[in-house]
Amino acid sequence: MRPPGRPASARRGDLMRRLTLARPARLDAGHPPAVRWPDPAAFTGPGAPGQLRRGQPRSGQFRQRMLAAASSAAALLAVIGGLVAVGPAAPRGGTPARRDSHPAGSPPHLTARQVLIEAADHVRPAAGDGRYWFASTISGLIVAGGTRAHPYDIVMPSLEMLWLSPRSGRTDYSFGEELGATPATPADRAPWRAAGSPRTWYYGIGGVTTAGPTQVAAFRWTGHGLVGYLEGDLSYLTRTQFLALPASPSRLLRALRREARQLPSVRNPREGGATESQVVWGELVQLLHGPVSWRVRRAAWEILAGFGGMRSLGPMRDPRGRAGFGIAGGPGANGQILVVNPADGALLATEDVGTPAGLPPGPVPRSLIYRGRPCQGGHPVFVTVGSRRERRCVPVYFHRVYRGQVYYWTAYLAGHWTDSAPHLAARPTWVAGPGY
Amino acid sequence: MTSAQDRQRFAAMYLEHRGRVYSYAVSRAGRPLAEEIVSEVFLVAWRRFAELPDPPLPWLLVTARNVAASQFRAAVREQSLAEEMRAWTSPAELTAGDVADQVTDRVTILTALASLAEPDRELLTLVAWHGLPATAAARVIGCSTAAYFVRLHRARRRLEQAVAAAEQGSGRASPARCGAATAGGVPERPR
Description:
The structure holds two protein chains of two kinds. By secondary structure, chain A is of the alpha+beta class.
Protein backbone atom coordinates (compact mmCIF):
# COMPACT_ATOMS: atom_id res chain seq x y z
CA MET A 1 0.00 0.00 0.00
CA ARG A 2 1.30 3.41 -0.91
CA PRO A 3 1.14 6.46 1.29
CA PRO A 4 -1.54 8.97 0.32
CA GLY A 5 -0.68 11.31 -2.49
CA ARG A 6 1.69 8.94 -4.22
CA PRO A 7 -0.24 7.29 -7.02
CA ALA A 8 1.73 4.52 -8.61
CA SER A 9 1.76 6.07 -12.05
CA ALA A 10 2.96 9.43 -10.78
CA ARG A 11 6.34 8.32 -9.55
CA ARG A 12 9.28 8.23 -11.86
CA GLY A 13 11.06 4.93 -11.68
CA ASP A 14 7.95 3.18 -10.47
CA LEU A 15 8.40 0.43 -13.01
CA MET A 16 11.82 -0.44 -11.61
CA ARG A 17 10.35 -0.42 -8.13
CA ARG A 18 7.63 -2.82 -9.21
CA LEU A 19 10.27 -4.98 -10.84
CA THR A 20 12.33 -4.94 -7.65
CA LEU A 21 9.35 -6.00 -5.60
CA ALA A 22 8.52 -8.74 -8.08
CA ARG A 23 11.86 -10.45 -7.47
CA PRO A 24 11.11 -14.17 -7.18
CA ALA A 25 11.94 -15.79 -3.87
CA ARG A 26 13.39 -18.68 -5.84
CA LEU A 27 16.46 -16.57 -6.51
CA ASP A 28 17.42 -16.90 -2.86
CA ALA A 29 19.48 -19.84 -1.74
CA GLY A 30 17.30 -20.20 1.34
CA HIS A 31 14.18 -20.82 -0.72
CA PRO A 32 13.16 -24.45 -0.33
CA PRO A 33 14.79 -26.72 -1.15
CA ALA A 34 17.59 -24.71 0.44
CA VAL A 35 21.02 -24.89 -1.11
CA ARG A 36 23.55 -27.04 0.76
CA TRP A 37 26.64 -24.97 0.39
CA PRO A 38 30.05 -26.61 0.09
CA ASP A 39 32.42 -25.46 2.80
CA PRO A 40 34.98 -22.89 1.70
CA ALA A 41 37.68 -25.47 2.37
CA ALA A 42 36.20 -27.56 -0.42
CA PHE A 43 37.70 -25.05 -2.83
CA THR A 44 40.99 -24.43 -1.09
CA GLY A 45 41.89 -27.48 0.94
CA PRO A 46 44.42 -30.15 -0.06
CA GLY A 47 42.89 -32.43 -2.65
CA ALA A 48 39.94 -30.13 -3.22
CA PRO A 49 38.82 -29.61 -6.82
CA GLY A 50 40.12 -26.10 -6.53
CA GLN A 51 43.62 -27.52 -6.51
CA LEU A 52 43.24 -29.02 -9.95
CA ARG A 53 45.50 -27.58 -12.54
CA ARG A 54 43.91 -25.45 -15.18
CA GLY A 55 42.47 -27.61 -17.93
CA GLN A 56 42.61 -30.83 -15.97
CA PRO A 57 39.43 -32.82 -16.62
CA ARG A 58 36.93 -33.34 -13.86
CA SER A 59 34.57 -36.20 -13.45
CA GLY A 60 30.89 -35.81 -14.19
CA GLN A 61 29.99 -36.22 -10.52
CA PHE A 62 31.15 -32.74 -9.71
CA ARG A 63 28.82 -32.00 -6.82
CA GLN A 64 29.51 -35.28 -5.11
CA ARG A 65 33.22 -34.59 -5.29
CA MET A 66 32.66 -31.15 -3.88
CA LEU A 67 30.75 -32.55 -0.94
CA ALA A 68 33.37 -35.25 -0.36
CA ALA A 69 36.10 -32.65 -0.45
CA ALA A 70 34.12 -30.59 2.02
CA SER A 71 33.98 -33.52 4.43
CA SER A 72 37.66 -34.31 4.18
CA ALA A 73 38.52 -30.67 4.78
CA ALA A 74 36.33 -30.32 7.85
CA ALA A 75 39.31 -30.18 10.17
CA LEU A 76 40.87 -27.43 8.11
CA LEU A 77 37.61 -25.53 8.13
CA ALA A 78 37.48 -25.78 11.89
CA VAL A 79 40.87 -24.11 12.01
CA ILE A 80 39.70 -21.40 9.64
CA GLY A 81 36.56 -20.94 11.67
CA GLY A 82 38.65 -20.61 14.77
CA LEU A 83 40.78 -17.97 13.12
CA VAL A 84 37.74 -16.03 12.06
CA ALA A 85 36.21 -16.19 15.51
CA VAL A 86 39.13 -14.51 17.20
CA GLY A 87 38.30 -13.13 20.59
CA PRO A 88 39.32 -13.21 24.19
CA ALA A 89 36.70 -15.85 24.90
CA ALA A 90 35.06 -18.48 22.79
CA PRO A 91 31.92 -17.23 21.07
CA ARG A 92 28.77 -18.73 22.49
CA GLY A 93 26.10 -16.93 20.57
CA GLY A 94 25.58 -13.67 22.37
CA THR A 95 23.13 -12.32 19.81
CA PRO A 96 19.92 -11.21 21.49
CA ALA A 97 18.03 -10.84 18.23
CA ARG A 98 17.19 -14.22 16.82
CA ARG A 99 16.84 -15.36 13.27
CA ASP A 100 13.24 -16.20 12.61
CA SER A 101 11.87 -18.19 9.73
CA HIS A 102 8.39 -16.72 9.55
CA PRO A 103 7.47 -13.52 11.33
CA ALA A 104 3.73 -13.10 11.17
CA GLY A 105 2.43 -11.39 8.06
CA SER A 106 5.84 -10.89 6.52
CA PRO A 107 7.38 -12.54 3.51
CA PRO A 108 10.10 -15.07 4.13
CA HIS A 109 12.46 -13.83 1.43
CA LEU A 110 13.13 -10.17 0.71
CA THR A 111 16.35 -8.47 -0.25
CA ALA A 112 17.63 -5.56 1.80
CA ARG A 113 16.45 -3.14 -0.85
CA GLN A 114 13.01 -4.69 -0.92
CA VAL A 115 12.71 -4.51 2.86
CA LEU A 116 13.78 -0.86 2.91
CA ILE A 117 11.51 0.14 0.03
CA GLU A 118 8.64 -1.67 1.72
CA ALA A 119 9.40 0.18 4.93
CA ALA A 120 9.41 3.50 3.05
CA ASP A 121 6.11 2.71 1.41
CA HIS A 122 4.47 1.75 4.69
CA VAL A 123 5.40 4.77 6.78
CA ARG A 124 2.09 6.25 7.85
CA PRO A 125 1.20 9.84 8.70
CA ALA A 126 1.11 10.34 12.45
CA ALA A 127 0.08 13.15 14.77
CA GLY A 128 2.58 15.95 14.36
CA ASP A 129 1.63 17.93 17.40
CA GLY A 130 1.32 17.56 21.14
CA ARG A 131 2.60 18.94 24.42
CA TYR A 132 5.52 16.51 24.50
CA TRP A 133 7.62 14.40 22.25
CA PHE A 134 7.59 11.07 24.06
CA ALA A 135 10.41 8.62 23.37
CA SER A 136 10.97 5.31 25.10
CA THR A 137 13.83 2.89 24.58
CA ILE A 138 15.43 -0.10 26.22
CA SER A 139 19.16 -0.50 25.65
CA GLY A 140 21.34 -3.43 26.50
CA LEU A 141 25.09 -3.43 26.98
CA ILE A 142 26.70 -6.85 26.79
CA VAL A 143 29.92 -7.22 28.77
CA ALA A 144 32.16 -9.99 30.01
CA GLY A 145 30.76 -11.19 33.30
CA GLY A 146 32.49 -14.48 33.95
CA THR A 147 35.82 -15.71 35.17
CA ARG A 148 38.77 -17.10 33.26
CA ALA A 149 37.57 -20.60 34.14
CA HIS A 150 33.92 -19.91 33.37
CA PRO A 151 33.65 -17.17 30.77
CA TYR A 152 30.24 -15.87 29.90
CA ASP A 153 28.55 -12.61 29.02
CA ILE A 154 25.96 -10.58 30.84
CA VAL A 155 23.53 -8.05 29.43
CA MET A 156 22.73 -4.88 31.35
CA PRO A 157 19.40 -3.56 30.08
CA SER A 158 18.13 -0.12 30.96
CA LEU A 159 14.85 1.63 30.25
CA GLU A 160 14.71 5.30 29.33
CA MET A 161 11.64 7.47 28.80
CA LEU A 162 11.68 11.13 27.79
CA TRP A 163 8.94 13.75 27.63
CA LEU A 164 10.35 16.78 25.81
CA SER A 165 8.30 19.91 25.38
CA PRO A 166 8.61 21.79 22.08
CA ARG A 167 8.18 25.08 23.96
CA SER A 168 11.06 26.79 25.65
CA GLY A 169 10.56 27.37 29.36
CA ARG A 170 8.28 24.37 29.84
CA THR A 171 9.08 21.33 31.94
CA ASP A 172 10.80 18.31 30.43
CA TYR A 173 10.86 14.91 32.13
CA SER A 174 12.99 11.83 32.04
CA PHE A 175 12.70 8.49 33.72
CA GLY A 176 15.36 5.82 33.72
CA GLU A 177 15.65 2.42 35.27
CA GLU A 178 18.41 -0.15 35.35
CA LEU A 179 16.52 -3.35 34.77
CA GLY A 180 19.13 -5.66 36.25
CA ALA A 181 21.84 -7.73 34.67
CA THR A 182 21.33 -11.30 33.54
CA PRO A 183 23.39 -13.82 31.58
CA ALA A 184 23.23 -12.52 28.02
CA THR A 185 21.90 -15.61 26.29
CA PRO A 186 20.66 -19.08 27.23
CA ALA A 187 24.14 -20.34 26.32
CA ASP A 188 25.63 -18.07 28.98
CA ARG A 189 23.54 -19.51 31.79
CA ALA A 190 25.50 -22.76 32.16
CA PRO A 191 28.90 -21.13 32.73
CA TRP A 192 27.16 -18.57 34.95
CA ARG A 193 25.83 -21.39 37.13
CA ALA A 194 29.23 -23.08 37.06
CA ALA A 195 30.74 -19.85 38.34
CA GLY A 196 28.41 -19.93 41.35
CA SER A 197 25.45 -17.97 39.95
CA PRO A 198 26.81 -14.60 41.04
CA ARG A 199 24.42 -11.66 41.22
CA THR A 200 27.03 -8.90 41.26
CA TRP A 201 29.54 -8.25 38.52
CA TYR A 202 32.47 -5.89 38.12
CA TYR A 203 33.38 -4.77 34.65
CA GLY A 204 35.50 -2.22 32.86
CA ILE A 205 36.93 0.49 35.06
CA GLY A 206 35.04 0.60 38.30
CA GLY A 207 31.79 -0.61 36.82
CA VAL A 208 29.49 -2.68 38.98
CA THR A 209 26.09 -4.09 38.29
CA THR A 210 23.71 -6.46 39.99
CA ALA A 211 20.92 -8.77 39.04
CA GLY A 212 17.39 -7.48 39.46
CA PRO A 213 16.21 -3.88 39.11
CA THR A 214 18.75 -1.71 40.84
CA GLN A 215 18.48 1.95 40.03
CA VAL A 216 15.64 4.26 39.21
CA ALA A 217 16.18 7.88 38.32
CA ALA A 218 13.54 10.48 37.59
CA PHE A 219 14.27 14.05 36.53
CA ARG A 220 12.35 17.13 35.60
CA TRP A 221 13.87 20.35 34.40
CA THR A 222 13.05 23.53 32.55
CA GLY A 223 13.61 22.82 28.91
CA HIS A 224 14.65 24.92 25.94
CA GLY A 225 12.24 23.56 23.38
CA LEU A 226 14.70 20.96 22.15
CA VAL A 227 12.99 17.70 21.26
CA GLY A 228 15.79 15.57 19.85
CA TYR A 229 19.11 15.49 18.13
CA LEU A 230 20.56 14.35 14.88
CA GLU A 231 23.83 12.72 15.86
CA GLY A 232 25.47 12.35 19.21
CA ASP A 233 25.38 15.64 21.04
CA LEU A 234 26.27 17.63 17.97
CA SER A 235 23.01 19.26 17.27
CA TYR A 236 19.95 19.36 19.49
CA LEU A 237 17.04 20.61 17.46
CA THR A 238 13.65 22.17 18.01
CA ARG A 239 10.46 20.80 16.52
CA THR A 240 10.50 23.58 13.94
CA GLN A 241 14.01 22.59 12.89
CA PHE A 242 13.04 18.96 12.58
CA LEU A 243 9.97 19.85 10.55
CA ALA A 244 12.12 21.96 8.24
CA LEU A 245 14.20 18.98 7.15
CA PRO A 246 13.66 18.28 3.45
CA ALA A 247 11.45 15.33 2.53
CA SER A 248 13.26 14.70 -0.75
CA PRO A 249 15.81 11.89 -0.27
CA SER A 250 18.52 13.64 -2.28
CA ARG A 251 18.05 16.98 -0.51
CA LEU A 252 17.82 15.29 2.87
CA LEU A 253 21.04 13.39 2.23
CA ARG A 254 22.80 16.61 1.27
CA ALA A 255 21.54 18.24 4.47
CA LEU A 256 22.74 15.34 6.59
CA ARG A 257 26.16 15.43 4.99
CA ARG A 258 26.39 19.13 5.64
CA GLU A 259 25.51 18.50 9.26
CA ALA A 260 28.04 15.69 9.53
CA ARG A 261 30.84 17.90 8.28
CA GLN A 262 30.43 20.07 11.36
CA LEU A 263 31.91 17.30 13.47
CA PRO A 264 35.63 17.65 14.24
CA SER A 265 36.23 13.96 13.57
CA VAL A 266 34.82 14.32 10.05
CA ARG A 267 36.86 17.42 9.35
CA ASN A 268 40.01 15.82 10.77
CA PRO A 269 39.88 12.10 9.99
CA ARG A 270 43.36 11.49 11.38
CA GLU A 271 42.12 12.27 14.86
CA GLY A 272 40.07 9.08 14.86
CA GLY A 273 36.39 8.81 15.51
CA ALA A 274 33.42 8.78 13.21
CA THR A 275 33.77 9.32 9.48
CA GLU A 276 31.27 11.26 7.41
CA SER A 277 29.48 8.14 6.23
CA GLN A 278 29.29 6.84 9.79
CA VAL A 279 27.82 10.12 11.03
CA VAL A 280 25.29 10.16 8.19
CA TRP A 281 24.30 6.61 9.09
CA GLY A 282 23.79 7.69 12.70
CA GLU A 283 21.74 10.67 11.58
CA LEU A 284 19.49 8.46 9.47
CA VAL A 285 18.94 6.12 12.40
CA GLN A 286 18.02 9.13 14.54
CA LEU A 287 15.51 10.29 11.94
CA LEU A 288 13.90 6.86 11.80
CA HIS A 289 12.73 7.18 15.40
CA GLY A 290 12.95 10.93 15.96
CA PRO A 291 10.39 13.76 15.94
CA VAL A 292 10.31 14.20 12.18
CA SER A 293 7.45 14.23 9.72
CA TRP A 294 6.42 10.93 8.20
CA ARG A 295 7.69 12.21 4.85
CA VAL A 296 11.18 12.71 6.25
CA ARG A 297 11.07 9.24 7.78
CA ARG A 298 10.07 7.82 4.42
CA ALA A 299 12.94 9.70 2.79
CA ALA A 300 15.34 8.24 5.35
CA TRP A 301 14.28 4.71 4.42
CA GLU A 302 14.65 5.56 0.74
CA ILE A 303 18.16 6.89 1.30
CA LEU A 304 19.11 3.65 3.02
CA ALA A 305 17.52 1.66 0.17
CA GLY A 306 19.74 3.54 -2.25
CA PHE A 307 22.98 2.75 -0.43
CA GLY A 308 25.20 0.10 -1.94
CA GLY A 309 26.33 -2.89 0.08
CA MET A 310 23.18 -3.30 2.16
CA ARG A 311 22.31 -6.92 2.76
CA SER A 312 19.34 -8.69 4.27
CA LEU A 313 19.81 -11.00 7.22
CA GLY A 314 16.32 -12.34 6.66
CA PRO A 315 13.50 -12.52 9.18
CA MET A 316 14.64 -12.02 12.75
CA ARG A 317 13.31 -10.80 16.07
CA ASP A 318 14.57 -7.79 17.93
CA PRO A 319 15.79 -8.01 21.54
CA ARG A 320 12.20 -7.52 22.70
CA GLY A 321 10.97 -10.41 20.60
CA ARG A 322 9.26 -8.33 17.92
CA ALA A 323 9.30 -9.74 14.39
CA GLY A 324 11.12 -7.90 11.63
CA PHE A 325 13.93 -8.17 9.13
CA GLY A 326 17.61 -7.72 9.79
CA ILE A 327 19.49 -5.30 7.56
CA ALA A 328 23.27 -5.02 7.69
CA GLY A 329 26.11 -3.53 5.67
CA GLY A 330 26.07 -0.26 3.86
CA PRO A 331 28.38 2.70 4.15
CA GLY A 332 28.90 3.88 7.67
CA ALA A 333 26.95 1.07 9.33
CA ASN A 334 30.05 0.21 11.32
CA GLY A 335 28.80 -3.25 12.08
CA GLN A 336 25.35 -2.07 13.09
CA ILE A 337 22.26 -4.12 12.28
CA LEU A 338 18.88 -2.53 11.79
CA VAL A 339 15.84 -4.59 12.72
CA VAL A 340 13.08 -3.28 10.49
CA ASN A 341 9.38 -3.96 10.33
CA PRO A 342 8.57 -3.30 6.66
CA ALA A 343 4.84 -3.73 7.33
CA ASP A 344 4.60 -0.43 9.22
CA GLY A 345 7.87 1.30 8.34
CA ALA A 346 9.15 1.10 11.91
CA LEU A 347 12.73 0.79 13.06
CA LEU A 348 12.40 -1.77 15.84
CA ALA A 349 15.97 -1.88 17.08
CA THR A 350 19.62 -1.37 16.33
CA GLU A 351 22.30 -3.87 17.26
CA ASP A 352 26.04 -3.33 17.25
CA VAL A 353 28.01 -6.37 16.25
CA GLY A 354 31.55 -7.29 17.13
CA THR A 355 34.29 -7.89 14.63
CA PRO A 356 36.93 -10.58 14.39
CA ALA A 357 39.69 -8.19 15.37
CA GLY A 358 38.19 -7.79 18.82
CA LEU A 359 37.76 -4.06 18.55
CA PRO A 360 34.75 -2.55 16.82
CA PRO A 361 35.57 -1.40 13.31
CA GLY A 362 37.18 1.97 12.83
CA PRO A 363 39.76 3.80 14.87
CA VAL A 364 39.66 3.61 18.63
CA PRO A 365 38.22 6.90 19.85
CA ARG A 366 40.86 8.73 21.79
CA SER A 367 38.42 9.37 24.58
CA LEU A 368 38.40 5.65 25.32
CA ILE A 369 42.16 5.25 25.44
CA TYR A 370 43.94 5.95 28.67
CA ARG A 371 47.32 5.26 30.16
CA GLY A 372 47.62 2.62 32.83
CA ARG A 373 50.68 1.04 34.39
CA PRO A 374 49.93 -1.73 34.84
CA CYS A 375 46.77 -1.93 32.76
CA GLN A 376 44.57 -2.73 35.73
CA GLY A 377 40.93 -3.23 35.00
CA GLY A 378 41.49 -2.52 31.36
CA HIS A 379 42.64 -4.40 28.31
CA PRO A 380 46.02 -3.65 26.75
CA VAL A 381 46.00 -2.75 23.09
CA PHE A 382 48.65 -1.34 20.79
CA VAL A 383 47.63 1.83 19.06
CA THR A 384 49.35 4.28 16.78
CA VAL A 385 49.90 7.60 18.48
CA GLY A 386 51.41 10.05 16.06
CA SER A 387 54.11 7.97 14.37
CA ARG A 388 54.70 5.58 17.25
CA ARG A 389 53.04 2.38 18.36
CA GLU A 390 52.23 2.52 22.04
CA ARG A 391 50.74 0.16 24.54
CA ARG A 392 47.58 1.69 25.93
CA CYS A 393 44.52 0.50 27.78
CA VAL A 394 40.92 0.47 26.73
CA PRO A 395 38.03 -0.57 28.97
CA VAL A 396 37.53 -4.30 29.05
CA TYR A 397 33.98 -4.07 27.78
CA PHE A 398 35.18 -2.06 24.81
CA HIS A 399 37.60 -4.76 23.78
CA ARG A 400 35.61 -7.76 24.80
CA VAL A 401 33.72 -8.38 21.61
CA TYR A 402 34.03 -11.21 19.18
CA ARG A 403 32.88 -11.87 15.70
CA GLY A 404 29.12 -11.94 15.43
CA GLN A 405 28.52 -10.90 19.02
CA VAL A 406 25.99 -8.16 19.59
CA TYR A 407 27.66 -6.04 22.23
CA TYR A 408 25.09 -3.26 22.41
CA TRP A 409 21.50 -2.93 21.34
CA THR A 410 18.69 -0.44 21.53
CA ALA A 411 15.04 -1.35 21.12
CA TYR A 412 12.78 1.55 20.17
CA LEU A 413 9.52 1.14 22.06
CA ALA A 414 7.78 4.46 21.38
CA GLY A 415 8.33 7.77 19.64
CA HIS A 416 5.30 10.02 19.21
CA TRP A 417 3.68 13.27 20.24
CA THR A 418 1.45 13.20 23.27
CA ASP A 419 -0.45 15.54 25.57
CA SER A 420 0.13 13.33 28.61
CA ALA A 421 2.78 14.29 31.12
CA PRO A 422 4.24 11.85 33.61
CA HIS A 423 3.48 12.06 37.31
CA LEU A 424 6.86 12.75 38.79
CA ALA A 425 8.05 14.62 41.82
CA ALA A 426 7.55 18.37 41.76
CA ARG A 427 11.27 19.15 41.99
CA PRO A 428 14.24 17.69 40.16
CA THR A 429 14.97 14.52 42.03
CA TRP A 430 16.64 11.18 42.10
CA VAL A 431 14.53 8.25 43.12
CA ALA A 432 17.04 5.67 44.27
CA GLY A 433 16.30 2.01 44.37
CA PRO A 434 18.04 -0.72 46.33
CA GLY A 435 21.77 -0.69 45.97
CA TYR A 436 22.00 2.86 44.75
CA MET B 1 48.53 -18.25 -2.53
CA THR B 2 47.85 -21.16 -0.21
CA SER B 3 48.64 -19.52 3.08
CA ALA B 4 46.17 -19.81 5.91
CA GLN B 5 45.56 -16.11 5.59
CA ASP B 6 44.59 -16.48 1.93
CA ARG B 7 42.25 -19.33 2.75
CA GLN B 8 40.71 -17.26 5.50
CA ARG B 9 40.21 -14.30 3.18
CA PHE B 10 38.78 -16.56 0.51
CA ALA B 11 36.38 -18.13 3.02
CA ALA B 12 35.16 -14.69 4.04
CA MET B 13 34.73 -13.66 0.41
CA TYR B 14 32.89 -16.90 -0.38
CA LEU B 15 30.54 -16.56 2.58
CA GLU B 16 29.78 -12.95 1.69
CA HIS B 17 29.11 -13.38 -2.01
CA ARG B 18 27.92 -16.92 -2.67
CA GLY B 19 24.26 -16.00 -2.17
CA ARG B 20 24.38 -13.20 -4.70
CA VAL B 21 26.27 -15.29 -7.21
CA TYR B 22 23.66 -17.99 -6.73
CA SER B 23 20.80 -15.54 -7.31
CA TYR B 24 22.43 -14.32 -10.48
CA ALA B 25 23.02 -17.89 -11.65
CA VAL B 26 19.37 -18.76 -11.06
CA SER B 27 18.27 -15.76 -13.09
CA ARG B 28 20.66 -16.75 -15.89
CA ALA B 29 20.20 -20.48 -16.01
CA GLY B 30 17.57 -21.64 -13.53
CA ARG B 31 17.82 -23.40 -10.20
CA PRO B 32 18.82 -26.83 -11.51
CA LEU B 33 22.08 -25.47 -12.93
CA ALA B 34 22.78 -22.68 -10.47
CA GLU B 35 24.61 -24.68 -7.82
CA GLU B 36 26.96 -26.12 -10.40
CA ILE B 37 27.65 -22.65 -11.76
CA VAL B 38 28.35 -21.23 -8.30
CA SER B 39 30.75 -24.05 -7.48
CA GLU B 40 32.61 -23.51 -10.72
CA VAL B 41 32.77 -19.76 -10.16
CA PHE B 42 34.40 -20.14 -6.77
CA LEU B 43 36.80 -22.75 -8.03
CA VAL B 44 37.94 -20.25 -10.62
CA ALA B 45 37.96 -17.52 -7.99
CA TRP B 46 40.31 -19.53 -5.76
CA ARG B 47 42.64 -20.32 -8.65
CA ARG B 48 42.81 -16.63 -9.51
CA PHE B 49 42.41 -15.29 -6.03
CA ALA B 50 45.45 -13.05 -6.22
CA GLU B 51 44.03 -11.31 -9.28
CA LEU B 52 40.55 -10.67 -7.95
CA PRO B 53 39.52 -7.03 -8.04
CA ASP B 54 38.07 -5.27 -5.07
CA PRO B 55 35.10 -5.43 -4.79
CA PRO B 56 35.02 -8.90 -6.31
CA LEU B 57 31.27 -9.20 -6.96
CA PRO B 58 31.20 -7.86 -10.54
CA TRP B 59 34.09 -10.18 -11.40
CA LEU B 60 32.26 -13.13 -9.85
CA LEU B 61 29.11 -12.36 -11.82
CA VAL B 62 31.04 -12.02 -15.06
CA THR B 63 32.58 -15.40 -14.33
CA ALA B 64 29.15 -16.86 -13.59
CA ARG B 65 27.93 -15.44 -16.87
CA ASN B 66 30.81 -17.04 -18.74
CA VAL B 67 30.47 -20.35 -16.90
CA ALA B 68 26.75 -20.48 -17.66
CA ALA B 69 27.48 -19.88 -21.33
CA SER B 70 30.40 -22.27 -21.64
CA GLN B 71 29.58 -25.07 -19.22
CA PHE B 72 26.19 -25.97 -20.60
CA ARG B 73 24.86 -26.35 -24.06
CA ALA B 74 22.64 -23.43 -25.06
CA ALA B 75 19.59 -25.64 -25.44
CA VAL B 76 20.00 -27.11 -21.95
CA ARG B 77 20.43 -23.70 -20.37
CA GLU B 78 17.49 -22.17 -22.22
CA GLN B 79 15.21 -25.02 -21.28
CA SER B 80 16.27 -24.75 -17.65
CA LEU B 81 15.72 -21.00 -17.68
CA ALA B 82 12.31 -21.31 -19.32
CA GLU B 83 11.26 -23.75 -16.61
CA GLU B 84 12.63 -21.38 -13.99
CA MET B 85 10.58 -18.48 -15.31
CA ARG B 86 7.47 -20.61 -15.41
CA ALA B 87 8.09 -21.42 -11.76
CA TRP B 88 8.25 -17.71 -10.89
CA THR B 89 4.59 -17.33 -11.80
CA SER B 90 3.40 -20.70 -10.58
CA PRO B 91 0.49 -20.73 -8.09
CA ALA B 92 2.77 -22.21 -5.41
CA GLU B 93 5.15 -19.24 -5.66
CA LEU B 94 2.39 -16.65 -5.82
CA THR B 95 0.43 -17.80 -2.81
CA ALA B 96 3.31 -17.50 -0.38
CA GLY B 97 1.70 -14.54 1.43
CA ASP B 98 4.32 -12.16 0.10
CA VAL B 99 3.95 -8.54 1.17
CA ALA B 100 5.18 -7.60 -2.26
CA ASP B 101 1.92 -8.89 -3.66
CA GLN B 102 0.14 -6.11 -1.85
CA VAL B 103 1.89 -3.41 -3.81
CA THR B 104 2.50 -4.80 -7.22
CA ASP B 105 1.15 -7.28 -9.64
CA ARG B 106 4.07 -9.62 -9.74
CA VAL B 107 2.61 -11.79 -12.42
CA THR B 108 2.20 -8.93 -14.86
CA ILE B 109 5.74 -7.77 -14.28
CA LEU B 110 7.28 -11.22 -14.41
CA THR B 111 5.33 -12.20 -17.49
CA ALA B 112 6.35 -8.99 -19.20
CA LEU B 113 9.95 -9.54 -18.15
CA ALA B 114 9.92 -13.06 -19.49
CA SER B 115 8.74 -11.76 -22.85
CA LEU B 116 11.85 -9.60 -23.24
CA ALA B 117 15.05 -10.69 -24.89
CA GLU B 118 17.70 -12.09 -22.57
CA PRO B 119 20.04 -9.06 -22.79
CA ASP B 120 17.19 -6.77 -21.73
CA ARG B 121 16.25 -9.07 -18.88
CA GLU B 122 19.80 -9.11 -17.64
CA LEU B 123 20.17 -5.33 -17.79
CA LEU B 124 17.02 -4.82 -15.78
CA THR B 125 17.54 -7.51 -13.19
CA LEU B 126 21.16 -6.63 -12.47
CA VAL B 127 19.87 -3.41 -10.99
CA ALA B 128 16.46 -4.43 -9.68
CA TRP B 129 17.15 -7.89 -8.34
CA HIS B 130 20.87 -8.15 -7.80
CA GLY B 131 21.33 -4.65 -6.41
CA LEU B 132 24.34 -3.68 -8.47
CA PRO B 133 25.19 -0.02 -8.94
CA ALA B 134 25.41 1.11 -12.53
CA THR B 135 29.21 1.00 -12.72
CA ALA B 136 29.33 -2.59 -11.47
CA ALA B 137 26.45 -3.65 -13.72
CA ALA B 138 28.26 -2.15 -16.69
CA ARG B 139 31.33 -4.22 -15.83
CA VAL B 140 29.23 -7.38 -15.73
CA ILE B 141 27.68 -6.58 -19.09
CA GLY B 142 31.04 -5.58 -20.49
CA CYS B 143 30.31 -2.05 -21.60
CA SER B 144 30.91 1.50 -20.48
CA THR B 145 28.69 3.04 -17.84
CA ALA B 146 27.33 5.51 -20.39
CA ALA B 147 26.46 2.72 -22.80
CA TYR B 148 24.91 0.81 -19.95
CA PHE B 149 22.57 3.68 -19.14
CA VAL B 150 21.50 3.95 -22.77
CA ARG B 151 20.79 0.22 -22.96
CA LEU B 152 19.02 0.27 -19.62
CA HIS B 153 16.82 3.12 -20.78
CA ARG B 154 15.84 1.17 -23.88
CA ALA B 155 15.24 -2.00 -21.88
CA ARG B 156 13.00 -0.08 -19.50
CA ARG B 157 10.96 1.27 -22.36
CA ARG B 158 10.53 -2.20 -23.77
CA LEU B 159 9.51 -3.48 -20.34
CA GLU B 160 7.00 -0.64 -20.03
CA GLN B 161 5.50 -1.61 -23.35
CA ALA B 162 5.39 -5.26 -22.38
CA VAL B 163 3.73 -4.43 -19.06
CA ALA B 164 1.19 -2.21 -20.79
CA ALA B 165 0.45 -4.98 -23.27
CA ALA B 166 0.07 -7.50 -20.47
CA GLU B 167 -2.22 -5.18 -18.52
CA GLN B 168 -4.30 -4.34 -21.60
CA GLY B 169 -4.58 -7.93 -22.64
CA SER B 170 -5.79 -9.32 -19.36
CA GLY B 171 -6.64 -6.38 -17.13
CA ARG B 172 -4.88 -6.25 -13.74
CA ALA B 173 -4.73 -9.94 -13.31
CA SER B 174 -4.92 -11.40 -9.86
CA PRO B 175 -2.22 -13.85 -8.85
CA ALA B 176 -4.69 -16.72 -8.88
CA ARG B 177 -5.90 -15.94 -12.40
CA CYS B 178 -2.41 -15.49 -13.71
CA GLY B 179 -1.16 -18.60 -12.03
CA ALA B 180 -3.73 -20.55 -13.94
CA ALA B 181 -3.21 -18.54 -17.10
CA THR B 182 0.51 -19.14 -17.15
CA ALA B 183 0.34 -22.80 -16.33
CA GLY B 184 1.00 -23.55 -19.95
CA GLY B 185 4.23 -21.63 -19.89
CA VAL B 186 5.65 -18.15 -20.09
CA PRO B 187 5.99 -17.11 -23.70
CA GLU B 188 9.58 -16.84 -24.87
CA ARG B 189 10.46 -14.02 -27.18
CA PRO B 190 11.61 -15.34 -30.56
CA ARG B 191 15.30 -14.71 -31.13
